[in-house]
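STRUCTURE:
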């Protein structure tokens, strides 16, 4: 739903002694157009229309018409007109007389949407808070053995071994070091040089593999080269050079926080806009300077429609969690943002798409927005980390609550993220756990934005040990030290399962995912679960294999063929690239990866 604000009309009236349109300043020549004593229209003592002593001004030869605007008769003014209707003192809220709406004590209509007044707290400027991150786990170096596939037309830039090899601006590199990024992850090794090499990119990497930094670092580095084009905070319409679109409010906030981290002590101002927050607050944030904009589709489209933001100068368009951004729910808004405003065509901008899952149909759809792109796959497409221990339990619907209590009783103060399918169940289960002594909160789409942000902050701070969530928390959220994810309800699609359990076991840390499987309800996911577990070298229960054999469908999941293990253009003879390991056992790099280097055509020259 669009957000509205009041437009403040601007005056076009000229100043004293100004010319037509008021462009000159007070004190300029009285003989200029429209000034005192002017010979043109409207001057003081003018003989033409509108001046003092003119035919329509003070002392004019024509008699003033003092007719009443109500009855159109002469001899009195409207305020004295006998036909004047009495003032209506009926209240707009309750319809009763004798008071106005501002004094009305009647309750508000519960069906009428309330004005959004929430203003989020100002972000901390403390470096310790800004650079707090998930520490690299004991399995981080195992990333070097992850298979990598890079395909695309033209010369594909070679991967880097260290951040210092990427020719990153010194200030940004210092910020990377402050964030304790010691060594690039595989997606960062490949994506950073591809982006700095001015190529479009579709990147598919496992959850928790550092995708956000993989696009923010090179994009911010390039924006530093365009400092002369950064919009001034004095400009009424801000024109960001980079736009990141995210599917959820929480993910948008997180991306902007990461951007602030890497842009610290530079001239680049990252700003975030999303629904559920007072529009005037976001407008002030944008107008104070906006060079990298992060937003959700609804609020972004609203600001574009009100002409508070221009995309005319855009260098980068980034879709995070792109598979969801391009599904049927978001696709119309994404197309409108790209096609209906002033965004440069795909040949004149760079488009980057990142996700953990890229089904073939989404790849084909994404190609509409990409130009001459590189396809990067890190690990098994649609796969999960072996760092996450996955356990599928067969549980009757009526026994789920007791089983959840039994599991949480062994967890102490560890952070547990519990996923359910409905908003009502999220609140009910949170209340039930609180009554049983567990520090629990919930997050879902029907909670006010302030409540959502407070719940997430309390869970991150450790004051709440259990977070009950719907799909709103499944995508991209980077919460430190989530020991366990519990699928109280399994999702309908295997992609959602992968995103959910990816909230644990991040950046080489170990995690655990437990899922409740209910007969008569979850068989549609059985085959996909069997393959996901087998690919991650996890134990597959015999009862789940039996359920999978009798389940509908013949492919990898309920719809069949949902996962693309390769670039959908792979049979194109013009594609270059190949398959590599992220590193070998000798010097941290596979030599046969150095297959050309260099960038593609620079779309800005």
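SEQUENCE:
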């Amino acid at each position: 739903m669009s957000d509205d604000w009041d437009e403040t009309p601007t005056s076009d009236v000229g100043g004293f002694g100004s010319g037509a349109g008021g462009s000159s300043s007070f004190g300029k020549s009285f003989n200029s157009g429209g000034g005192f004593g002017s010979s043109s229209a409207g001057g003081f003592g003018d003989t033409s229309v509108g001046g003092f002593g003119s035919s329509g001004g003070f002392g004019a030869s024509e008699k003033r018409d003092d007719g009443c605007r109500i009855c159109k008769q002469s001899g009195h003014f409207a305020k004295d007109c006998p036909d004047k209707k009495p003032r209506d003192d009926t209240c707009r809220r309750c319809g009763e007389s004798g008071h106005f709406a501002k004094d009305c004590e009647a309750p508000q209509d519960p069906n009428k949407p309330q004005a959004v007044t929430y203003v989020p707290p100002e972000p901390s400027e403390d470096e310790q808070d800004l650079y707090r991150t998930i520490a690299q786990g004991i399995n981080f170096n195992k990333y070097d053995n992850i298979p990598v596939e890079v395909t695309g037309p033209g010369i594909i830039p070679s991967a880097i071994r260290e951040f210092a090899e990427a020719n990153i601006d010194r200030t940004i590199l210092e910020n990377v070091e402050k964030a304790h990024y010691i060594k690039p992850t595989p997606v960062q090794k490949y994506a950073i040089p591809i982006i700095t090499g001015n190529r479009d990119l579709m990147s598919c990497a496992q959850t928790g593999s550092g995708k956000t930094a993989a696009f923010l670092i090179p994009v911010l580095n390039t924006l530093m080269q365009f400092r002369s084009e950064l919009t001034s905070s004095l400009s009424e319409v801000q024109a960001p050079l980079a736009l990141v679109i995210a599917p959820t409010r929480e993910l948008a906030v997180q991306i902007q926080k990461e951007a602030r981290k890497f842009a610290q002590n530079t001239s680049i101002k990252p700003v975030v806009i999303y629904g559920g927050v007072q529009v005037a607050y976001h407008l002030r944030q944008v107008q104070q300077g906006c060079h990298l904009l992060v937003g959700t589709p609804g609020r972004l489209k609203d600001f574009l429609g009100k002409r508070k933001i221009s995309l005319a100068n855009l260098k980068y368009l980034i879709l995070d969690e792109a598979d969801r951004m391009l599904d049927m729910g978001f696709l119309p808004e994404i197309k409108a943002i790209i096609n209906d405003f002033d965004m440069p065509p795909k040949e004149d901008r760079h488009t980057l798409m990142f996700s953990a899952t890229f089904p073939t149909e989404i790849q084909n759809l994404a190609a509409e927005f990409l130009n001459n792109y590189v396809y990067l796959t890190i690990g098994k497409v649609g796969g999960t980390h072996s760092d996450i221990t996955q356990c599928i339990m067969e549980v009757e619907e009526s026994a789920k609550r007791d089983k959840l209590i039994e599991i949480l009783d062994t967890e102490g103060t560890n952070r547990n993220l519990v996923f359910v399918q409905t908003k009502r169940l999220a609140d009910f289960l949170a209340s039930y756990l609180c009554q049983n002594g567990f520090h629990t909160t919930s997050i879902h789409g029907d909670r006010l934005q302030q409540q959502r942000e407070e719940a997430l902050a309390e869970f991150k701070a450790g004051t709440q040990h259990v977070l009950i969530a719907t799909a709103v928390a499944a995508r991209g959220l980077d919460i430190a030290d989530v020991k366990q994810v519990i699928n109280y309800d399994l999702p309908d699609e295997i992609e959602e399962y992968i995103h959910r359990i990816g909230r644990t076991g991040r950046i080489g840390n170990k995690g655990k995912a437990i899922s409740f499987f209910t007969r008569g309800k979850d068989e549609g996911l059985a085959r996909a679960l069997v393959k996901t577990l087998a690919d991650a070298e996890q134990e597959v229960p015999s009862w789940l294999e039996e359920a999978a054999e009798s389940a509908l469908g013949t492919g990898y999941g309920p719809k069949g063929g949902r996962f693309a293990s390769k670039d959908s253009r792979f049979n194109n003879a013009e594609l270059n690239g190949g398959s590599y390991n992220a590193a070998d056992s000798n010097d941290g790099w596979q030599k046969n990866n150095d297959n050309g280097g260099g960038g593609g055509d620079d779309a800005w020259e």
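REMARK: The chain is about 25% helix and 15% strand.
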